[in-house]
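WARN no homologs supplied; continuing
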Amino acid sequence: MRFSKLILGFGILFTFHFNAQEIAVNKVPKRIYTTKKLVKTPVIDGLITEDAWNIVPWSTDFVQKTPNEGVAPTFQTKFKVMYDAKYLYIAVRAFDDAPNLIQQRLSRRDGFAGDRVNVIIDSYHDKRTAFVFTTTAAGVKGEEIVTQNGDNWDESWNPVWFTDANLDDKGWTAEMKIPLSQLRFGDAKEQIWGFNVNRTLFRANERSLWQRIPNEQAGFISEAGELHGLINLKSQKQLEIQPFTVLQYDSYPAEAGNPYRTGNDFNINGGLDAKIGITNDLTLDLTINPDFGQVEADPGAIALDGFQIFFREQRPFFVENKNIFDFEFANGRDNLFYSRRVGRNPHRSPNLSNGEFADVPQNSTILGAAKFSGKTQNGWSIGVLESVTANEYAEVRETDGSTREEIVEPLTNFFVARAQKDFNERNSFLGGIFTATNRNLAGNFSELHKAAYTGGIDFRHVWRKRDFYVEGNTIISHVLGSEEAIENTQKSMARLFQRPGASHVNLDVTRTSLTGTGGRIEAGKQGGGHWRYGGGFVWRSPELELNDVGFLRQTDEMIQYAQGRYLWFVPKGIYRDITVSLEQSSTYDFGGNLNRFRYELQGNANWKNNWGTEIGVGASSQIHRNAFLRGGPRWRAADDHFMYGFVNSDRSKKFSFTVGYVAIRSEEDVFTRNRYVFRMNYQPFDAFSMSLNNELEQTIDKTQYVSTTNFGTDKRYILGTIKNDSWTTTLRLNYSINPDFSIQFYGQPFISRGRYSDFNYVNNPVASSFKNRVNLYEDSQITSQIDANGNETFLIDENLNSSTDYSFAKPDFSFVQLQTNLVVRWEYIPGSELFFVWARGSVGSQDFNDSLGQSIRTQVFDTPANDTFLIKATYRFVR
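OK structure emitted
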């Protein structure tokens, strides 16, 4: 605690001391480009040779952003902007004295590889949000929506627009034709938009901007220049309809006697996606029977701590514009809306008797979903999402050949409404969110919530040239259900109200509802001078529940945190920029118990040769875990310390790599972990690239939870020493014939192997020393037996009376997963695509006595896999 007070005192000291000594940000004049309405329409071929471009002037005088902010770039850039009733036209000339060195790297859409220009358009002119259109020297297009004044760049947005690029003896040129229907703007007679152009000189890792933005300046979109001269633009109500058809063939190992697993299946499916511009500001997105067959499989993972695993959303309908619906109320991944809940796997499995088989749906069918979203000229951001998933039934084939249906998932409605309002000259916003989940249980599914509601309010305010900020949010949740459903919620891993010794929570089996709260408040300095600092407080009450349509890992926490950073952002000597940061946090539960004190010192450096280094050290003390014993008493873990280091080479080279090492050590050698990382990217020629990501993690933990059992009137919490080795490698291959035709391969084998020894049981869970926290079983107390199926069980005679007091299964495991995905993508006309997909995967358990390599080889070469062949065709009608 003395060290904690020292850290807090230091934080308060530098907050006030350096606030008075910050270097003032020099005011950078706002640049203005005045466009004109075109007379002739140019051909978008990347050449800029038509007379049509001559009605508007070039603008140039770009300034470096990195590495040498504020000075002239190695090569200048210039651009022109025109418009007509439906389109914005942009021409870019990127000068380069060595055209043969220009990096024309082909990649998939949004690959962002090689030399490129980004046109940044804040058509809302809200100084926080922008649309970004990117063209590379190879003619590859990319698009992003930028929010949070440049802190969040979302590449999931895929508008229909047109671009091309061309190399010549002066460098390279690009042309863009952007439909006004893809932008959002008001109805003023003359539009004024935020505007900037960024150029990346890839081989020098150099960025230059038309509107200079000093590195010490907080914010990015707010500091853009302005585009004037847009007169009498008419509202462009977007209308896009995209039907699709899917042909799918599945091949898999047949199961003897199972009529639902004959070895192959063939299906034809279809659906519809649509975008309808209600106004020029607001868009309605619709999907009917969406298909996600071309989406990559989730990465392999195994949770030894009992908590659920977060997987990122990859389905196109939910990924696009997902930032509008985000409400991250605390540190980490906690969010009131987690779209993976929509269309999830069924909650139930059918009840089967011996000799019965079942056809169980893998996911809930999304009958339909709609999103209404956008941002108005007066600063309102609005998002409404409505989705309905169907009753799902498993068909069961009985022993006499007849069939019956068993419901495994109820009809469910998901609703999310999000709004924010900018005010105070866009320096402040106030927002809110409401979510609702309603299930038609029809007298069934007593284990599920009948309804779940959440609401939240968030705000942010910046001042003094946006250098200082205060932000926060608060939320409330309310779930309703049967006594069984609410009891399950109270006893879930996120809460564990039944745990002994926790006087601030108690299990009430008669409750039919649960209401909880959470939130965050933070303030600090984000720009101006070399110092950045901040601090805040997060809380999650024990009763908080979000997991019907949100994501919540754990409750019963109050976290205080503070951090400070010092930046050297002016290149000098051998470095481009360096950042050193110090972070500290303290975690308590709602009973007032200190559960962790943590600090970390981190340094990041980018060097003149374009290499990078990241190093860090830290420690945690007073570690207590309320959920460690899965409903048992509070557990004290050993204090630990950690260090890590990563080095990456120049990413502008054809071959680049990252190597890293992470080490964690605890007192009394209770816990040790070594993590090794190797990543590489290789692009031997412009059309082909490959990346490989390898991670090996080796863990030894003397206190891995195994089981809970009864010993007379007492509980026995059984632990063991686990040697857990996990290895994953992810291989990606990309071959692009042209910007619209590409072949992509994704492959990921994953293995996690755990072998247990030195079993023990908890004696005093909060003792300061490990040897006092547990009792190790003596050889005379533990024996094992193997049944006819080869399953091993440990028998415990704790009181040595020659009678088995309790037993538990041998917990050793070797989990192996293989996922591969080969996708041929052809965008045969803008916005319309044809996919050919081959997905191959297998999941199984291997002999835990084998090496990691042998287990992978067995899974890949000897274990039958599931194959899916899919053809998907889409056609986008655009008006």
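The first strand starts at residue 32 and ends at 34.
OK
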